[in-house]
Structure formats: C-alpha cells, structure tokens
From TrEMBL:
Residues 31-267 form the ABC transporter domain. Belongs to the ABC transporter superfamily. Pfam families: ABC_tran. One of its GO terms (molecular function) is ATP hydrolysis activity. PROSITE patterns: ABC_TRANSPORTER_1 (PS00211), ABC_TRANSPORTER_2 (PS50893). This is ABC transporter. Involved in beta-(1-->2)glucan export. Transmembrane domains (TMD) form a pore in the inner membrane and the ATP-binding domain (NBD) is responsible for energy generation. It comes from Bradyrhizobium canariense.
Amino acid sequence: MTEFAAARFTVPKHLRGMVASDAKPQGVAVMKRDDSALEVMGLTKCFDRLAVDNLDLTIHAGEFYALVGPNGAGKTTTLRMVAGLLRPDAGSVSIFGIDALQNPVAAKQVMAWVSDEPMIYDKLTPLEYLEFVAGLWGIAPSASEPVATELLNSLGLELHRHERCEGFSKGMRQKVALAGALVHDPRLIILDEPLTGLDAVSARHVKGLLSERVRAGCTVIMTTHILEVAERMADRIGVIAAGRLVAEGTLTELRQQNGHADTSLEDLFIALVTLQEAA
C-alpha cells in the first residue's frame, strides 16, 4: 500500500460531501497564510554527507512545479521530508498553512505521495486496492467505487480493473499507485519520478491525469529526469544541485537569468549544475 496510510485519519470535509472550509481545524497549528500550497524554509538533512542544505522553496496553489537535478542532488530526500516520510534535521514545512512537522496527520489529509517504486498489494485488483485505500480514509464503498472507476478509466486501466495486480507491468503498477494516492481528492500531489520506466502510452495517461488535476485547482510538485516533461508541463522549474536550489523560475525566466533567450532547458540545466559543482 502507500507509505502514508496505516492509521485512521479524520476525514476532510470535502470528502464528506461538504465544501472545504478555510477555517483552522481544532488543534492544528497554522503557519503564515498566503496563496502558497507548500512553503519550505531552511530544510536541512544530513546522512553520511549533507543531502539537503538549508533549502527554501515556495510553491503556489494551483501550480505545476518540476524539481530537476542530477542523481544525488537531494530531490527525493526533499520530497520525502515534505511528505512526512523523513524527519529533517532543521527547517520547517508548511502545507496550505499547516505546520507539517507539528501536525503530520493534518498535513497528510490534504496531500498525496507517489514514489518511483510503486507499493501495492499484488493479490488485490486495482478496483479492490482503490476501495481499500479509500476505506482507510473513511470513505464509504458507495462513494469510493465511482471515484475509483473514474480514476482507473482516466489512466487506461478500465479493462484491467478486475485483474490481480501481481502480473502487472511497472507502468501499470505505477498507474494503480497513482490512482490510489488520488482517491481521497488531495490538494497537493507529490510525485517522485512518476514517469520512470513507463512506456509512451502509460506516460501519456499519467501526464493527462496530472494536467487535469492542475486545471481543477490541485497543486503538483514532481521530480523528473525527463527535462522535456518539465519544459512542457511545469509552470515553474527548480534546479537543485548539491542539496541547494541553484535556480528557479519559468523557462523564460531561467533563460533570462542566464542571458540566453533561446537556450534549451537541457543546456541551462547542464550549465547550472556544472557551475554549482565547480563552486
């Protein structure tokens, strides 16, 4: 299953057929209020070396944000700390104004996490898996079945929804994991290399669903090695190297910052990373 849902959570209002309120939930610490979906300040994590170095990052509500960087740059570590799967050594994480370090359950209620290695129950069918995850969120089967069916259809799994997942390819498993992460209608979707190992058809299904979610008002932050995807899908792109955010902006802004109006993202990426590694 997901790395998230081992406990019963209080169901968000919008999952009970009500309009979500902007009011602060009882007992939930709220940080600075603005239009940010995610605000990271001074985030730091050290293993045998410094993996994330005093990172500041703000992602606006309704934005598609791509985080790119070389292997070992700190992308996955950053997202795991944001998702509450790894405790930072220093810094703060605010998700829609909720202090995610002080109130991890409240923060998880409004987010979804999908890793590059899908973790699902092989003996369940996709429909059973989604209904199981929905049950952990307290969503009744009568409400979850149509949502699950719609998600599976959007990802091209309608003909496989009653087949056990044990024989599925990497791409099919990734799509089931994504559908399971979205079944509770999260406002922030956190994705670590979601397109790795996917064929062209599966990748198109995933990109299509994510684009639909952003158009509906969701916020997406995604790491990717596929620079073309970042260039075509993201509203803004962050370049991370050696645990630091070395550049950020729209593609046009990144070009302007580096003085080359027609430079490709690949060339910008290589130049920025090389400069950081030489520093």
